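Could you please consider the sequence and fold following this short note?
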Amino acid sequence: MGSTSIGYQFGISVRVDGNFKLRSDNSVSSLPCKVVITRKSLFSAASSTRKEFSNRARVCSLPNTDEYCDEKVETPILDSIETPSQLKNLSVKELKLLANEIRKELLSVLWKTRKSVNPSLAAIELTLALHYVFRAPFDNILWDGVEQTYAHKILTRRWSAIPSRKKNGISGVTSQLESEYDSFGAGHGCNSISAGLGLAVARDMKGKRDQVVAVIDNVTITAGQAYEAMSNAGYLDSNMIVILNDSRHSLHPNMEEGSKASISALSSIMSKIQSSKVFRKFRELAKAMTKRIGKGMYEWAAKVDEYARGMVGPTGSTLFEELGLYYIGPVDGHNIEDLVCVLREVASLDSMGPVLVHVITEENRDAETRKSMVVKDRRTYNDCFVEALVMEAEKDRDIVVVHAGMEIDPSLLKFQVRFPDRFFNVRMAEQHAVTFSAGLSSGGLKPFCIIPSAFLQRAYDQVVHDVDRQRKAVRFVITSAGLVGSDGPVQCGAFDITFMSSLPNMIAMAPADEDELVNMVATAACITDRPVCFRFPRGSIVNRNYLVPTGLPIEIGRGRVLIEGQQVALLGYGAMVQNCLNAHSLLSKLGLNVTVADARFCKPLDIKLVRDLCENHKFLITVEEGCVGGFGSHVAQFIALDGQLDGIIKWRPIVLPDGYIEEGSPNEQLALAGLTGHHIAATALSLLGRTREALLLMS
């Protein structure tokens, strides 16, 4: 009997005990390529059984939903796998069956989430092959894309919590704090090659012999950092393996124009030849011989080699050779035998330098299975924004859209279909998106640059120098602002209020509801002499049956009072105005009538509104869904310089805590951050000396 402890965030842990017997029949010797097998367990303490989890009545916590997963999925092989090292004891047939079991398991749980399950499903065979060939966690496997990692998490003793991305559940991304099998934490993508190269160089300097494998997909590879990392890897010539998990079947930047890389018997044979030790040694020997003959012969031979390999590989494959990576591919990402053979050969080379293995996967393999699994969402802020923007674009032919980020919100397809020539999606090239928008503005167009808050951080230098310093009229639409529920700290929009409102020429605003959002779209369309930004949260709008009206421009720097009260003024910014209204309702039941105001603008601040609130109340509470240094700091700066703090007014800010809030439901995260209506009301009661009532309210 063995045991293991599975740790979770927020101090919750689960301990599991069970028996396990190693399987010795049908081992990897049945594979077509030789593999050196080590049957020694990497961790003697790894004996928690999945079978015990399977036999229990499983409750599957789902992101963004309170429903439960009642369907029982039979997974006998998966139930027997406790560590990835045990994959080496399986036959090819069993590996294929295991892939199907993982696919069914993921489908049974992930289909209810708002996230696409395609990347995880497409990467199942690749994940199995990686853990089959390499010796994680001794070997380092780095994952670039967040949504590719569920199969990896299933195989690394986190099956019971998959895909719980609520409070106390596992993270939606890889995290070293969560598992020793996660060599590096995944963020927004495109960091795996850079981090992997760092691990490879550190390994060489310390005289170690572990392997480094970085997995990147066709979305995250569009980011500039990936090419910077590959260029540096080619220069340093450290041994590392880059896996390009390509679900587009094309290396062409425009998928519609690029020719697809076909997977055939010939490409399979050529990939095996390219990865073989004999071929690599022959190639290196040929290089050495031509160098001795002379520089001209060497350069001629290099061109012949590049041309020949370019004919074998798909369009764009020679780019990686130019960067200094040895290209192998394309390889069928759903053929476990081919994957294992190629990866094993690459892993066996003692001195290979950086290698890129181009793996072709198919995201739509389970499309038919999922057709009946579509969940209709409520109307969101994104829906209202796009409808309002379409209305403005109908009136103004200069309005264009530039989108950057990992995923496009489905609502944006409405604009793309209506104005295909005025819609530009640059994927994860946020820096380019910002400067591209500045160029569009210089050319007389009105760009709306749509970037999620957390992704805008990657382009801040361009926002400063290419937009704000030059007063370019770029309209930044900051989506997923504030807390983002199941996506936790990775996509949390905590910092944009601070870093955008600190810029000298930037107009920063945030809508309190869908009406204000529509009006701010119209306002942004009218601004032509400076940059402007507005943020709105992820999630449903206030009024479910809302019909988008024609937007009316708002006077720049003018807030509004929603409810007149006494003693305490609640000044909310953006979506937190709704929580201030909730706090007002709670306090009114206790006989306390407070003022509620909507700031609308962080910059320029409505100083008249703030001054009036200070002069007519004893307490001012500012509320924002952002970090320290944002809206509340602008208010504090003004009331300090205006002398208001020298009078009777007492000011209290409510902001996000100085830390990263892990995955949870939106309500759980708001409660943890102290931003609920109850927290705001309790703060007001405490300021008034009604501490007992504040404690009762929070209980």
